Amino acid sequence: MKLKEIRNSLSTRLSLWIVFFAAAIFVAALGYVTVVARRAVRREAIQGAKRVLDNTVIRVNGILEDVELVADNLEGRIYQNLDKPDVMFDLSREVVLTNSFLNGCSISFEPYYFPEKGRYFSAYSNNNGKSVYTQQEGQDSYQYFYLDWYLLPKLMGQPCWTEPYTDQEEFDDSTMDSKMMVSYCKPLIGNDGSFVGTLTLDISLAWLSETISAVKPYPHSYSILVGRGGTFLVHPDPQKLFYQSIFTEDLVSPNPGIRKLGEDMQEWKEGMQELVFGEDDSYVFYKPMMTTGWSVAIVCPESDIFGGFHRLQNIVLTIVLVGLLLMYLVFFRIIRKQLQPLRALAVQAETIASGNFDTALPQIKRNDEVGVLSRSFSEMQTSLVTYIDELTTTTAKKERIEGELHIARSIQMDMVPRVFPPFPERKDVDLYAFMSPAKEVGGDLYDYFIRDEQLYFCVGDVSGKGIPASLFMAVACNLFRVLSWQGNPPAEVARQINNEMSQHNEQLMFVTLFIGCLDLKTGRLDFCNCGHNPPVLFTPEPHFMTCEPNTPIGIMPGYAFEGQTMENMRGVRIFLYTDGLNEAENVSHEEFGNERMMNALASLPHSESAQGVVEKVHAAVASHVGIAEASDDLTMLCIKLA
Amino acid sequence: MKRFTLILLAALVALPLGAQKTKPKQDMIVFTPQWTAQAQFAGYYVAQELGFYEEEGLKVSITHPNATQSAENRVRSNLSQVTTLQLAQAVQFAANGLPMVNILQTSMNNGMVVISRRGKNPMQQQGGKVGIWAGGFTQLLESVAQQAQLNFEWIRAASMVNLYIAGAVDAIVAMSYNEFFQIRQAGFNVPESCVYRLSGHGYNIQEDGLYVSLDYYEKHKEQALKFARASRRGWDYTAAHPEEALDIVMRYVVKNHIATNRILQHLMLEEILSLQLDPDTHEREYRIREDMLQQANEIMMQGGLIQRYVTLEELIR
């Protein structure tokens, strides 16, 4: 199942989520059960192995203690006959004959202890299984006093058990353990307290090997016995038996686990270790045999101890996995069936989305979320069809209005003179104007004309924006041209326009207007500022013109506007503008402001043409506004009389 | 009570047998090394198994010493013609009128050590019980101990390893290639502070060499030299192919029921090959060094084991 399929299928995703959640619960539960059960199995195994080991050691020690008891009894009789060497043969033979578990008995003495017997005297009896023979075995080729069984009790001054050894020259490996024997040795102390010889009782290691090997608490478990030197005295592998010690492999491949086990066993400790023993992960339970100094251990492969547990675990795991798979399939099928109407709805929705709004939706007679969704979708479809119809109509209307507005813009722009230079025949008048509505049409206006060497001009700004403002502007524009053409001074023109526009002004619109009349012969400027931004004069530094505070036009019928006069405007540049310039905002709603405007104007050279002034100020304000939408109409007019 | 494994060494201390003359098969050389089958004699096993003796025109039988006959006795009774001896042994024999002829010297260093049981320098245990072979090879050490006035109580034993393990002795004399590893195999770490190496204290005197009786040498010189040549070839091959040699050693070990294992034999072979390198040239020189012979003479003379110096010419004819 590809990831894309999972991503695109709600049924699959929901099913997988359910299965994952269930799996998490199963894993947590199984994990807990596993830990608890494993501990219980382990505890039981330890207790079981300990019981088996205890029993084994008790049985082995029982036989070894019998040997020690025989030695103790015999010792007294030897001391009673220390002056009768030949009695030693009888004692030795009698002990072997009366104790069937003994293989042999040796009563051996220091060289020349019995002067009449020479250097060697060792009374030895042996039970070979068929008969018992007795002999003096010491000779030049068999100097017994150099051997372990004689030297150990002599040097240690106390009874001891030897390490196992063999008594036959001819044997094969398969019968090796049956030929091995071990001896219990007691030092013989003379009347003067000095060491005089050794009493030795031999027993076969075969019975010990059989007893220990029979300990098999698990099918593949096995028992080992190691001597004081770590040598394997019992081991299922004949290659290791007697030939290797528990430390042998550690000589070339150090293994801390095995070494620790060997040291514990050598130090007569009792315990259990988990380690790789042989080739398997194993539990090794060990216990010392205090009598001999050996240590017996049971090696239990972990697979045996936890075999039943692992089988049960695997069965449960299989059931869980199959259950999860079935759960996935069932849930997938149920969810898929429940979502079938949604899929049909989705197909129809795609059809609707492609433009077929009348496509019939599937009928879902359910009261659940799917049914509610289906009905809601049906209602949405109906609403959508209605909305689309209305949108189509509205769009058509909007397109028509936009077309009309475009035409209105052309008309409005045609209402103001836009041919520059406006008076190409005159070299004394430099005039340039610019107007840019914020919308299709705007409420700004400017105009100018020359009549009888009088240059009439105006710049105005209607309150509001858009179509109403544009209509008010058109009226103001026409009135300016008609009324100023009569040659009246600007204040009178303002008064007449105000009177005209105040009538029927139910919308209470108004226009700020600066009207000027420049006498081209004398350079005298008459002007009337009707609430408009004061123009800037360059004399030659730019500064705001001082204007009377008249009201805007259209507010107060009959208002008496006051005109003003400046006598000589020759060489003086006048710059008029609407608030679309100094109040232009950038994206941070920061206004261009009078300061930036005046700085832009101050940076211009004195020789700059009227067009240059307007275009550079326009560039400065455009740079300030940046990508922000124009917030107001912008109009600029610059005049300079030479 | 014949304890085969243990009594072998007891047999080795047996007094020289009487002139038990047994005529060997014609052209057959019986070689008896001084110990049971082990990697100490790997070169001879290799020479035998790879046919180096045969290529020299020799018929060789390798017979190890047994309970009743030591290697030395076998040679003296002419049951065996070739044996191995330590240099100090050969010097003692020659000084005592029983000359043996060295036909090949394999050892160039001394491998004898004293291992302490009590966690301290064994040579500082004045008067301690020290296990030593009852079967011989002790000439050198006894002389050294006497010179150092250590007053050891020598515990002569067939095998000292079990005495060491049981704690019955304070220290034992051992070979660095044999008992030393057996002790370690028994779980004893044996730090170097508990080991006294003769070679490291000015007593680095060669050990194993191939010897024949003077009588045999005079009558069969050519055969003896052929045997030496093939044996040397065997040792060279062993040094070059130690794993293959070890396989051969293990065949001899199994055949002779020696209670050992491949790991011990591997360690033994490594040590033996190392002891065969001359301490100055680090080469396998196969020669008796006069300086070591002289030192052996002096030590044994001071120890009272010999009454006269033995010359190189007495050993190499």
Describe the protein's topology.
The complex is a heterodimer of chains A (642) and B (317).
Chain A: H1 3-8, H2 10-80, H3 87-98, E1 104-109, E2 122-127, E3 132-136, H4 148-156, E4 160-161, E5 165-166, H5 176-179, E6 180-189, E7 195-204, H6 206-213, E8 222-226, E9 232-234, H7 256-266, E10 271-277, E11 280-289, E12 294-301, H8 302-305, H9 307-353, H10 369-415, E13 429-436, E14 444-451, E15 454-462, H11 466-484, H12 490-502, E16 511-519, E17 525-530, E18 536-538, E19 542-544, E20 564-566, E21 573-577, H13 579-582, H14 593-602, H15 610-625, E22 634-641
Antiparallel strand pairs in A: 1-2, 1-7, 2-3, 4-6, 5-6, 6-7, 8-9, 8-12, 10-11, 11-12, 13-22, 14-15, 15-16, 16-17, 17-20, 18-19, 18-21, 21-22
Helix pairs in contact in A: 2-3, 2-9, 9-10, 11-12
Chain B: H1 4-12, E1 28-32, H2 42-49, H3 52-55, E2 59-62, H4 71-76, E3 82-86, H5 87-95, E4 100-105, E5 112-116, E6 129-133, H6 139-147, E7 153-157, H7 161-166, E8 171-175, H8 179-185, E9 195-197, E10 208-213, H9 214-219, H10 221-240, H11 242-255, H12 262-275, H13 290-302, H14 312-315
Parallel strand pairs in B: 1-2, 1-3, 6-7, 6-8
Antiparallel strand pairs in B: 3-10, 4-10, 5-8, 5-9
Compact description:
The complex is a heterodimer of chains A (642) and B (317). Chain A is an alpha+beta fold.
Task: Report on the architecture of this protein.
The complex is a heterodimer of chains A (642) and B (317). Chain A is α+β, with helices and mostly antiparallel strands. Chain A contains 15 helices and 22 strands. In chain A, strands 1, 2, 3, 4, 5, 6 and 7 form a 7-stranded antiparallel beta sheet that branches. Chain A has a 5-stranded antiparallel beta sheet with strand order 9-8-12-11-10. In chain A, a hairpin with a 5-residue loop joins β8 and β9. In chain A, α2 packs antiparallel against α9, α9 crosses α10 and α11 packs across α12. Chain A is rod-shaped and about 180 Å long. By secondary structure, chain B is α/β, with parallel strands linked by helices. Chain B has 14 helices and 10 strands. Chain B has a 5-stranded mixed beta sheet with strand order 2-1-3-10-4. Chain B has a 5-stranded mixed beta sheet with strand order 7-6-8-5-9. In chain B, α6 links the parallel β6 and β7. In chain B, α2 crosses α11, α10 packs across α11 and α11 crosses α12. The longest helix of chain B has 20 residues. Chain B starts with a helix and ends with a helix. The N terminus of chain B is likely disordered. Classes of the chains: A alpha+beta (642), B alpha/beta (317).
